[in-house]
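Hi team,

Filling in the usual template for the complex we talked about on Friday. All components are listed, including any nucleic acid strands or ligand strings, so the model treats them as one assembly.

SUBMITTER: L.P.
PURPOSE: interface mapping
COMPONENTS: two
RESIDUES: 225
SEQUENCES:
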Amino acid sequence: AQSVSQHNHHVILSEAASLELGCNYSYGGTVNLFWYVQYPGQHLQLLLKYFSGDPLVKGIKGFEAEFIKSKFSFNLRKPSVQWSDTAEYFCAVKAAGNKLTFGGGTRVLVKP
Amino acid sequence: DGGITQSPKYLFRKEGQNVTLSCEQNLNHDAMYWYRQDPGQGLRLIYYSQIVNDFQKGDIAEGYSVSREKKESFPLTVTSAQKNPTAFYLCASSPRAPQETQYFGPGTRLLVL
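RESULT (copied from the run log):
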């Protein structure tokens, strides 16, 4: 069965630090990849997505993610975080004909 | 404004009672989904519907039921058979393939006492 792993459950960092969140999936075929973010008290929002083309994807609020097919990974990065980036981040993967599968989420706390 | 609405935001029920959560979308999306969110487990799919009058079980459908009589609406009933119903429930919708990005509602937090 398709599975998605987010290895870090909690991340704490200071403002201006760089952020990288790992995401690995198990499916070997063509996939669509997503990162969603859930800010405190807000609903889940799409941060960025990859369907095809350039494996380096840029999203909203300065986030980017890189799809590395050989490593089955889609890691999320931001060079310099702000306090407002405090949120829970979810990686999700959809294989052709399959349902969207979510990782367990990573809670990020940015200290001012 | 286009979007997905879920009501109510908080819901309290006694054990053994059925409860129905509302989800409405005005995005003209064909597909709709119900997820359950528990801490550390991400989102797990309960039911989904690709078209009106049709729906399929997701990964954790036991103790839940749905209907899809209208394109805009996809209510979820949490029945007394659901052993651990206290959770945060999220509804989502998406257009047809290939642009199948799912958009989420604000969620309903259900507390069963």
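MY TAKE: The radius of gyration of chain B is 13 Å. The mean pLDDT of chain B is 91.

Thanks, L.
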